[in-house]
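Provenance and format

Records in this collection were gathered into a single text stream. Each protein contributes a sequence line and a token line. The two records reproduced below are adjacent in the stream.
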Amino acid sequence: MGQGARKQLAELLDDSERRGDFSTRVEMPAHALRIEVDGVGELPLPLRAPVTRKLIAQARQARFGLGEQTLADTSVRDTWEITPDRITLGGPDWQRTLSGVLDAVRTALGLPPTTVLRAEPHALLVYGKGQFFLPHQDSEKDDSMVGTLVVSLPSHHTGGELVVEHAGRSITYRASRERLTFAAFYADCRHEVKPVTSGYRITLTMNLLAERVRPADETGGGPVADLSHCLTEHFAQSAEQRYSYGHPKATPPNRLVYLLDHEYTQRGLGWDLLKGADATRAALLRQAAGQAGCEAVLALAEVRETWDAVPPYDRYDYYGDVEHFDDCEDEECEGECLLDPDGEPGAERRRSGDFSDYELGDLIDDEITLGWWTRPDGNGGEQISLPVPYAEVCASTDNKDLTPYQSEYEGYMGNYGNTLDRWYRRAAVVLWPRQRSFAARAEAGSEGALRELQGHLDTGELELARTRARSLAPFWKHQGSGAAAAPLFTAALRVAVGLGEADTAAMLLAPFGVETLSERHAPDLAEVAAQYGRTWARGAVGNWFGPVGAYTGADRATWLESLPGLCAVLRAADGDGDAVATPLVEEAWQATEERLTGWLGIGREPERRAGMERLGTTLAHILRAAGPETADTLTTALRGLPDTALECLLPALRTAARRPAAVRDGTPVGRAFRSLADHCEARLTAAVARPVRAADDWSLAPAGTCRSGCDLCPDLDAFLTSRTRRDMEWPLAKDRRHHIHSRIDLADLPVSHTTRRQGRPYTLVLTKTNAVFTGEQATRVRAETDLAWLREKWPRPRG
């Protein structure tokens, strides 16, 4: 039944009166426009070649956007561009003409009659013979931008057609030789300019901006009653599972997500700014929601689909032999064009690009995630993270009928493959019954749900707030970390303070990462710790850090820089801020100590030293954040480490020396760094005082503990520790040779190891290199340099 209601709703909306199309074309007399360009003057229309060449002399190579970059690549976009600040538009009839064009465009694109369109010049483009622009999609450069208007100036040319496509349809526009040609289309439509075959194509591109000047009439029209019935049925029936076998009977769905056809940005998504059929369907759904007792919001969805797919060529013949690409130009190719980097057949040559010509088979998997939605009251929107299950989705247009913004094909790999992944960005109307509003919003990590809880607390409805807060437990999972999650964490923290219920408060705060915490949270953190106690606070901090050994990355390193300031504000706040500050430092030290232990076990000096140096900066931040007892504990642990730890301790001291006021002598932090400086000075002094290696001393330290307990490593260590032996020839089988190779490489020993491939077994030849002496000399020089720096920057107090 659930699927039937969704299917009927999608069909009703698909059959509803369509209002507008995705693009349109208007022609006007050329004399309506008077256009001047700096350095050229007024352009006579139609344009001739001599004037056009003057335009090119004033132009630059046009660029295009790719993600966050702006590029100039003539293999993608080959045209000349003049920026709008150098263009003047006018003429006695221009404003009247443009206003009439925009009215016609608004109607043709299906925008509401209450919408007023404006056209903002973007660039003057000149295409010569052979120039083009590959298929692309315009970015929405303004909050109110809904589309693009291309004004083709009359000129004698061939080719250069503008091709606009959307939802599987394609329209081709050709410019007039005598009149102004206006082509308008929505910003999310892919379009291209075909190569010019003769003459010059000159266009003025303009951004279409939409403004709503009065409330829209949202009454009447359409199958509202039928849609309302579908909504009621959808929310009353058990949610159907895609694969029902083995699944228990499901509860009714929490929401309905109806996918719209067009793409929108956060800034450009609004009930007033919907495009074409989206506007009609969304208005109908909004009216039906009111009749069915539902709330409706607009959302942005990220969609991924995985299809069984077949390329447009036969990759395998009947007997499974590999055949090469139809377009492979190598006459002697025997399938190598299908080989992966390891030479294995079957890996597809193209990993990403345009796969529109691939034949889709079965849909293997799909994922839909809502990442942003408007608030029910219409006041702005908010970031969310909400996976949408199969039973809550419907659409009148299938994803496969739209153009994905990214595709990746995985060729046959033996056990898997021949799959095409496609990603789409779609807008959606999201609906839920009003009585389930709190759960529907809270499940998405909505700040609005927490504001509702805070509202109950503010009005004294404590038990209602507690009941609703407890209802979050089944789905109040990972809410993110860092600045993006900070507003949600702030709201959750204040609710946790007001609930007065320790377990519920812990549940509300648990899903956030420690990178979310900042100084502005200190007062509430101190208050909540004072309310629920130190044991509770320690558990909360543990949740924020996550499991021991979890990957943290650059965000954690950046956050650790702020740890000293955060702990200082915590300890100064009313309440019990130290109950949070102390476990923050201890958890940070635990993770750092684990990494430090790992680096100490690395024998390869360049790799180890680089890692230890990075860790030294983190260690300095942790020590500066520590309280007196914790600082003493950390210092004692660090002083007990082997000499190799100086590769971490010295960078920590260098970091601290750049903030002398923060580590001044006499304070607990200052005493901690002073203790480490004295420890490093003693170790370096001892290293410098060691006798210089004798010219005939070839002894090395043992290779370390062999975890396998083999019978080879004692013989290896005997060779390494010998003062006189420089070479060793060792007949060994392949696996035993590899074991010795790895022992030498892991310990980064100055010993070459080669295999003489004569006889059986082959002979492993070990030779101690001159790095025995040069490496030790370099270590001595580095120790002397470090010691001199240490005595300058961390001098011992006098007396």
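Adjacent record:
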Amino acid sequence: MAVATSPARRERWPLYAAAAVVAAVVLAPLAVPGYALLYDMVFVPRQPLSWALVAPADSLPRAVPMDALVSLVTQLVPGWLVQRLVLGGAIVLAAVGAGYLVPAERRMTRIVAAVGYAWTPYLAERLLIGQWGLLVAYAALPWIVRAALAAREGRPGALPRLVLAAAPAAITPTGGLLALATVALLVPTRRRPRSSAVATGAVLVLNAPWVVAALITGAGGASDPAGVDAFAARGENWAGPLAALAGTGGIWSADATPDSRSGPLIPVATLVLLVLGGVGFAVLRRRLPEGAAARLGVLAGGGFLVAALGVLPGTAAALRWAVVHVPGAGLLRDGQKFLAPYALVLVVCAALGAERLVARRLAELAGVVLAGVLLLPVAVMPDLALGGAGRLHPVSYPADWRLIAARTADEPGEVLALPLSAYRAYPWNPGRIVLDPLPRYLPVEVLTDDTLQVGDVAVAGENPRIREVRRLLREGRPVADTGVRWVVVQHRSAGEVEPAWLAGLDEVHDGQSLTLYRNPRASSAPQPERVGAARWAVVGALGAALLVVTVAALSALRRRPTPW
């Protein structure tokens, strides 16, 4: 039996039902209206399509092409609905993909894998830190693996399906790299070198938008080495960071970690999972084509190694050097993001391990035992339910935001957001910290601070423009000297605003949550043509990626439908 083999029709509905139940339990708070704003999760009613989001000129393209796609979609669909479709779809597709991937002999084994993959600490922690784009990549990963193994076997229509599966992952740089690594490792075979080259080339084109954006940005490719320690994997209990990674957790932020992960018995549950995974890997090796399981093991091990770079003595020092001297190495600072392949392989093998043990020792109690294994992830981490125990709670933007968006649209120009802070805690979004939504809410370019405060460590950003603004303010000079057209002061959000900074500005709107100032000395000089021309290269890369997806979709439609 191979991974590319679909479950029988009678097995699909229970799998989809289990996935839907998990999604409903996790995202229950989103049944009420509003926007769940938490850390990096920022959705707005209608995100503008601006150069700052398509191809940022002064910052690294961490959300390219994700922001451009959201901007296009929200021209037609309100942001609150996009948020629910993305999060719900990610959880359902993650669960179903894992269930389809496992080469099981029992229906219940597929459901065990589905629930296990949709209820991992990895998914919980990335949900609670708001990185929904990474959750989309996580959901796409089992489909990519399945299509890659089918392409390696030369199955008809596998290459188009592989491209279509990899496309959602490539909306973020990390997801694109995960897709590329999976394809480059699983697809190549001496028997079909052309197929291997086509598959790898297509996924490279899918990654082109953020690569080109990184090449043209004025932010440079270096990162603050302080981020290596700040973003390194973190121990969640007495067992330390490596044990947390082994259980698919270990995110750097304590605030994004479910409280249950600090329990003293969590390492014991992790050990049980590892034992089941070890037993199941032997089953996986027998049921997959020759060499496929070994390649999956290498993929999982590589992901685990990257996740551990920041906590291993030798590799941590090397990573600090790399983020300063090697362009793009900053992507590896938060290495726990790359743990997704390990989580997938571990869950699949653990499900197979449970199936094997039941078949050998407890055949008469197989259903009961597998049901217990099915509920184990929920039992050890119950606070993923209900939006992470209430952390995902929808709110509405105050009316000031809509008024200021309309005013700045009438007279476009650069906006500076004060106080200087990357993340904010608003009174109207109580108990939650969120990345400043202004750049995605206003239809003009917004300057926000990109310095990230992690505990007592301030990790410097890369934006040269905001560094210059910060220097001027530190010297006691007014904001008017920065050349921005607008200044928005966000009340009671983060830090203080010195009255001297606002000298020479004209107050345009004073509301309960925002105050808008206009700078009469703002420069009206157009942006240099060199920057504009370079940004069109990103549009070209986006067009190439969309063309690859379109060709793959048309090719898939021309063939006999294949059940997924």
